[in-house]
């Protein structure tokens, strides 16, 4: 796994956290929820190929 991916995930987490707090304090809880959901989906979009690759490698490892 690349270190840049970890930094990207951390940056998205910080950005989503700040935006969510700003939106909640301005009375837009629905938009804050959608912002959090979008951040989660973006991170999952980055992580799913890595997880699939991990399971494929594990399958190859234990395949006799």
TrEMBL record:
Q: Which UniProt keywords apply?
A: Membrane, Transmembrane, Transmembrane helix
What name does UniProt use for this protein?
A: Stage III sporulation protein AC
Q: What is the organism field in this record?
A: Lachnospira hominis
Looking at the UniProt entry, the stretches that span the membrane are 6-23, 32-55
Leader sequence segment: none
Among Pfam families, the record links this protein to: SpoIIIAC (PF06686)
């Amino acid at each position: 796994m690349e270190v840049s991916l970890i930094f990207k995930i951390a940056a998205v987490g910080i950005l989503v956290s700040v935006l969510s707090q700003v939106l909640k304090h301005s009375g837009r809880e629905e938009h804050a929820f959608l912002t959090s959901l979008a951040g989660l989906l973006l991170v999952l979009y980055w992580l799913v190929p890595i997880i699939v690759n991990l399971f494929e490698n594990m399958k190859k490892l234990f395949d006799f």
